[in-house]
Amino acid sequence: MWRQSEPPLAAGSRAGRRHHRVGGEPCDQPHQQPVREKVRSAGLGCEAEQLDDDVQDRNLREVVTLKLAGDLTDGPGGPSIVVMVFTETEIAYLASQRLGRLATAQRNGTLQVSPVGFSYNPATSTIDINGYNLARSQKFRNIADNGRAAFVVDDLASLHPWRVRCIEIRGVAEALTTEGGPLIRLHPKRIISFGIDEPDTEAHTLTINTRNVE
After folding, report:
1. Hey, where are the domains in the chain?
2. 53: Cβ–Cβ under 8 A, 6 or more apart, which residues?
3. pLDDT tens-digit readout, 38-69
4. What tens digit of pLDDT does each residue of 122-161 get?
5. CATH assignment of 89-212?
6. Which residues pair with 100 in a beta bridge?
7. Taking the complete model, does pTM exceed 0.85, yes or no?
């Protein structure tokens, strides 16, 4: 339960669930107490970097920002913490790439991998996938049937020296029909990335950034 001195987030929001884990009670993880104390004392102008050390103790490397509900205005939700699913460098990397590979599973267990165009959706912290005749595709039917999906974006930043970059996203996907047409929306549950935050590091010594998303 929130203490009365701490304004609540909008009920049921994703940010609200993450806020409770990072800054709320119960504080059963070592990093949570320092984060909560910083939240109380930082004020509305707090920058993300003020919380980075505490959040990275959890090895998530997520970007934490404090803002007001209602786009930094006096919104009805009051002060809130929004924990982004991807780091800023991962978001920039995704924006620089045109194709990814989407893995789905047919009803009989057969796996399928398809090259797809995609975009990062900051409003939902998801990967959104469109395509020609998407609703008629096997991958769309697979997602509608079971929602199982994984997605990979990778490339070679350099051949000499060898510099590889990759982000793998495992999660739950939706097959949606929107005003803009059919859409596959992938909600990350586990993220594995390397080479994105360390562009000048030899491939075999890269740090693998692995974390779960709830």
Report:
1. 14-84, 89-212
2. none
3. 334 434 333 334 444 444 433 333 333 333 33
4. 999 999 999 999 999 999 999 999 999 999 999 999 999 9
5. 2.30.110.10
6. 116
7. no
